[in-house]
Design a protein that fits this description.
Strand content: 25-35%
Order of helices and strands: HHEEEEEEEEEEEEEEEHHEEH
Number of helices: 5
Radius of gyration: 26 Å
Helix content: 10-25%
Shape: globular
Length: about 300
């Protein structure tokens, strides 16, 4: 008898708890700092026209970016990147390791002598990499991890303060240049009005996508009444063709084609000798049959 009463009491207690939980609803979802930042940046997503994309190996994507010499050069040695401007009198490089951390260093050349590289301590972002200094000598882009990112590695932007001889605090470059995935590099050619964004969003392990875009003259966000699902589509670059209405896509593609042709001609003017076999030596990029072989 007592056992029946106890069981009945426990059943009523359990039912009461279930009813209370039902009235309260589900437990609130706790969002990460990255998710909160994404939601904050989403309304300010920039209108950017993307005109092309190319999937490449993560370890060799620099070879597939047709960066003209007047925009500087980006090289990578022993896993660390260095940017040098057109005149090779300013370099921004990455030094360090994954244990003690990586840092950005800048040095300038005066005549034939290079000054001792100065650590850019004002840029305390975690594990910075792939620095790119615009031709104005003021605007610096680089990627970094940790605090202030939407997720993984993000692109950051800062300006050089000539009065204080240091950079301002870097800020997140926002959407669509960043995503919950990893972004590695943002580079821009002012002369050709073209830019390149390297990201591993929607890519398999070891691969990245190189997006070619037209840098907007000024950052323009979408209208306030733009549906959230549309904002997310643009922010995530679901379809580059969706952005072609933001500018003259045909003109941008023409500039891209002209840039690649110009670089091919410059390579040919310098002359090459690529030994294929005892009877064949390539002396021009046009001798290679595939675009991939010419780029490499």
């Amino acid at each position: 008898m007592y056992r029946i009463i106890i069981c009945a009491f426990l059943a009523l207690l359990t039912a009461g708890q279930s009813s209370a939980q039902s009235r309260k609803g589900k437990a609130p979802v706790v969002k990460t700092d990255e998710e909160i930042l994404y939601e904050e940046l989403l309304p300010a997503t920039a209108r950017v026209m993307f005109i092309d994309s190319l999937v490449a190996d993560k370890d060799s994507f620099l070879y597939y970016i047709p960066l003209p010499s007047d925009a500087g050069t980006i090289t990578r040695r022993d896993g660390l990147a260095t940017y040098a401007n057109e005149f090779d009198d300013t370099r921004i490089s990455v030094a360090g390791d994954t244990i003690s951390g990586q840092h950005l260093y800048m040095s300038r050349r005066y005549g034939n002598d290079w000054e001792t590289p100065r650590e850019l301590t004002e840029l305390d972002n975690e594990m910075p990499d792939y620095p790119f200094l615009m031709s104005d000598g003021v605007t610096l882009y680089f990627s970094a991890e940790g605090e202030g990112t939407v997720g993984g590695r993000d692109i950051f932007r800062t300006l050089y303060n000539a009065d204080e001889l240091e950079f301002y605090e870097a800020t997140n470059a926002g959407l669509p240049f960043n995503s919950p995935a990893n972004e590695y590099l943002l580079a821009i050619s002012d002369t050709d009005n073209l830019g390149w964004l390297v990201t591993d969003r929607n890519q398999e392990e070891g691969k990245v996508c190189i997006y070619t875009f037209e840098p907007p003259a000024q950052r323009v966000a979408f209208d306030e009444d733009t549906p959230e699902e549309d904002l997310k589509r643009y922010a995530e670059i679901n379809q580059i063709s969706d952005t072609w209405g933001f500018g003259d896509a045909n003109a941008a593609k023409k500039r891209q084609s002209e840039l690649i042709s110009r670089l091919d001609t410059q390579e040919g003017d310098r002359g090459i000798e690529f030994v294929v076999n005892d009877d064949t030596i390539y002396t021009s990029l046009s001798d290679f049959s595939s675009d991939d072989s010419r780029r490499q």
